[in-house]
Amino acid sequence: MTRRTILVSNRLPVTASVEDAVLKVERSVGGLASGLTGATRNSHTVWIGWAGPLTGISRRQVAELNAQLTALDCVPVSLSSREIREYYEDVSNAILWPLFHYQAERLPPDPRHWSTYAAVNARFAQAVADIWQPGDEIWIHDYQLLLLPALLRRRIPDARIGFFLHIPFPALEIFRILPWRQEVLDGLLGADLVGFHTEGYAGHFAAAAQDLLGAEWKPPYLTHQDRDVRVGAYPIGIDAGRFEELARRRGVRQGAEALRRGADVQVVAGVDRLDYTKGIPRRLIAFERLLTRHPELHGKVQLVQVVVPSRTGVRTYREFRTQVDAAIGNINGAFGTALWTPVAYQYRSLGEEELAALYTAADVMLVTPIRDGMNLVAKEFIASRVDDDGVLVLSEFTGAAAQLTEALLVNPYDVDGMAATLYRALTMDRDERKRRMRALRGTVTVQDATWWAGTFLSDLRSARRRRKRWATASETSTPEEVQEVLERARSARSLLLLLDYDGTLVSFTGRPDAARPDTELLGLLGQLAGRAGTDVHLVSGRSRDQLAEWLGDLPVALHAEHGLWSRGAGSDEWKRQPAVGATPYDELATVMGRYAESTPGSLVERKSAGVAWHYRMADAALGDQQAERLAAEMDDLADVHGLDVLRGDKVIEVRPSGIHKGLIVADVMRHAVPGCLVLALGDDRTDEDLFTALPPGSIAIHVGPRESLAPVRLPDVATARAFLRDLAMEPPSA
Fold it and tell me: How many CB atoms lie within 10 A of CB 685?
């Protein structure tokens, strides 16, 4: 059966119009619609939403509209004019929009019509339930439908449901202002996966769920009412290839030259929807201050400010336009001449070629919202700069600022700082401009709209694999408990030690090859190996060459690559576990290589029978997020090729199926002294296999904070070494 993806948003991705009494319905270009095209290419996509205001059409045209929508795999939800006013305008745009953008002072004194908002969400839920089939995945979009996930969960308990918020999720102290805050959280936690543009927004949501609902937060999962809900950051991208293609068109290049009006004029561009969140008045003040402080720029720079009409029927927006118009008029009146207009103002929508021409012409792009979920204008500008030139000045209060770190970041509330940064942008040397733009283009072209949608849907498909919960909590053992274990080990006539390396005997380092054993550890292992009645085995995921180089001179047995290779104490001969299948190195390395490219600080390690992706040096939040995605992707490959996927400490490793640390226990016990006591130390998931395979009566000790089956717990590497030092200093009892 072909997988269906049911997309749900306030508006359908169509434009309907009546021209000369003929109804015309076309798919929208750009935005969410184009972003989802690539990701849903291999699935049947159905889109549910409102078709928009179509007043004055005949009953025949209504039937024709529905037929055309059906042909486009669109399911319309009909809304009355009252519902549009109360659900969309009074709640979504007059309450949720300003509050989530930190504009609490704009809330109405008497917030109302939540019951209409809830009723419309229920209408959408019924529309989804009417067409849902087992196996379908549901992806809900944005702040107009915050209650929909829980409504669907009640109707379709087994549905796979994802939700993505396209605007910021505010900090807890702001979110608490919302009268219906608990209803919103309950609604979103009906999903299997809740996505945001940034880790910051995701953290705000998790904090609200913890504080207001008592949910348990163990990243990336919130646990609420016995359900695990995955929470993550998925920065939306654009159709970068489309803007690159536009920028290369002859007409676009000619349009750019016309905007520049000659080599002596530098173009500063701003493209914004008419909205109080976009920071236009403060930007204009900053530009005015630039002209005041740098008269040498008069006649040499021009701000081309495009304002796209929005919500023209709302009084607040009409007043805001008047404010913008007045500010631009004041600047042009104060500084303009017969030959120079400081601000070229356009209050209209631009066609895609006009927009690309402006992006291509701009020496500096000003994107300075006071708050924005992401801001795609910044990314469109970058994608259009096929010449690797131009400077992006970007508000630090946009979601894009977390990704586009080579932009010049500004605080839009600091007008002096914005003016100074704009001057820096205008005077930046060519080499620095190109270096920054090349880095920005690398981000925007790799993490495009298809990457965004594909990543989200991939995580949605794996989000319901509940994490295995270990039997033992993660508290550290008491000193008395540790002392009791130590005395038991000391008193054993014969002791067999199975010791993990990384995270147990040495602390983790950014690069795997930097964790060489220090002199103290080498001496400690030598003492343990020389202790009467004691056999020492090092059990590691590292390669045999590395273990031999670092520890090969010690009288200890070595087990490499999680037990795939073993050699006895004092021997140079490595023995391989039998019946190990072939590993598809190239395919695994290619997939992991993609993650290494998009996760700075990560790297791929190739072993004799496996491949590992290390991300300890990566940004913690991004690394954990990418690890979840990679593990899910590796799970699919593992099913095909008969492999196992290991989730270690800051590493995802793929190895032949059936190879794990537990395998060596049986081999070691065959050569051990009968009745010996086995004591094992480890720190991560790969060591749980070792603990599970230990014979009855053995001692398993977990090092570190993670959950484990081991009944004895030590807090860190230093404590583990201290435990082993105490053991090495005490001879066994007679």
Answer: 16
Find how far residue 498's CA is from the centre of its chain.
38
Q: 409's torsion region: left (phi>0), alpha (psi -120 to 50) or beta?
A: beta
How far is Cα 418 from Cα 694, in angstroms, rounded to an integer?
64
Q: Which pTM value belongs to this model?
A: 0.66
- Do 713 and 702 contact (CB within 8 A), yes or no? yes
Indicate which residues carry an active-site annotation.
Answer: 500
Computed from CA positions of residues 440, 443, 445, 449, in that sequence, does the dihedral angle turn out positive or negative? Answer: negative
Can you read off the two tokens belonging to residue 627? 């690890």
Q: What are the angstrom distances between the C-alpha of 295 and each of 270, 290, 292, 329, 423?
A: 22, 8, 6, 19, 12
CA separation (Å) from 123 to 113, 118, 148? Answer: 15, 9, 9
Residues 542 and 560: their CA atoms lie apart, in Å, by 6
Helix 449-462 crosses helix 31-39 at what angle (to 10 degrees)? 60
Crossing angle (nearest 10°) for helices 376-384 and 430-446? 110
Distance, CA of 19 to CA of 449 (rounded, Å): 32
Pair 494, 673: CB distance under 8 Å: yes
CB contact set of 206 (below 8 Å; sequence gap of 6+) = 215, 217, 219, 222, 231
CB 401 within 8 Å of CB 393: no
**pLDDT tens figures, 604-614:** 888 777 888 98
Question: What is the tens place of the pLDDT at every residue in 61-87?
Answer: 888 888 889 988 999 998 999 999 999
Contact 48, 88 (CB under 8 A): no
- SS3 sequence of 594-617: HHHHHCCCCEEEECCCCEEEECCC
Q: Which two tokens stand for residue 458?
A: 């991939």
Element (H, E) at 301: strand 301-308
Domains of the chain: 4-233 (3.40.50.2000), 240-452 (3.40.50.2000), 479-577+661-729 (3.40.50.1000), 585-656 (3.30.70.1020)
